[in-house]
Amino acid sequence: LSMTFVRESGSDAIRLGEQIRTEMEAIQNLLPSDVKLQLERDSTEDLRRQFGDLQYQSFFSLLSVFVILLLFIRRLRAPFVILGSVVFSIMMSVGVLFFMNFTLNVLTLAGTAVALGMIIDNAVVVFEQINPKLPSNRSDRLEYIKQELPNTFVPVFGSTLTTVGIFIPLFFAMEELQLFLVPLAVALTFTLVSSVIVALTWIPYSLIWLVPSDRVKSEKKLKKR
How far is it, in rounded angstroms, from Cα 213 to Cα 136? Predict the structure, then answer.
């Protein structure tokens, strides 16, 4: 039996391959002892290897982004806040793709990977606009963020919409091209839109509530003393 799957079938191909292996074992038990089923080729092994490599690459990418942010912004809170924005954006995008019946395959993963740079850009723009003059007291932070956050709308929305607009003509291309390019464009678009939502919500929230105020710091010092 030949198990040849299209690479773009992704996780569905892996599940189908496991199901076929199980069925082959059941059929083998029903056949005479001198008749054997042989598996010629299983394309899902390449997919499993690619997904495994993707996990390692994602880990090293996040680690390198962490180090770069720490070196250039020189604040310990920056890598955690910005990488949190990246993680939440990817989770939101994957959730939307799931509910729209898109599978995690080579094309959708490629679109998500291409959008990673833009995710970090949006997060850095919002973080650098709010963080430098962040008040030490939490009571003053909310008013400060209300004043500063609108200044990030133009760069964040402008850069995101111009990138998304590049992929609009793909939806009017030939059907053969749409088969390969539309999933990539959809994954990239959802990831970028998610990054805007997360950057404008998660980063202000984290800077208000997750960054200790001077009062909390002084109380901790008194407790230690």
Answer: 5
Per the CB < 8 A criterion, the answer to whether 196 and 98 are in contact is no
CA distance 155 to 137: 28
123, 86 Cβ separation under 8 angstroms = yes
For residue 32, the SS3 value is coil
In whole angstroms, give the CA distance from residue 111 to residue 188: 4
**pLDDT > 70? residue 6:** no
Q: How confident is the model at residue 218 (pLDDT cuts 50, 70, 90)?
A: very low
DSSP 9: G
Phi, psi at 2, each rounded to 5°: -110, 125
Q: pTM of the full predicted structure?
A: 0.69
Q: Which of 216, 81, 219 is nearest to 137 (CA)?
A: 216
For the segment 185-210, what is each residue's pLDDT rounded down to a tens digit?
888 889 999 999 999 999 998 888 87
43: which 2 tokens?
């394309």
CA-to-CA distance for 105 and 187, rounded, in angstroms?
10
Structure-token pair, residue 141: 């932070």
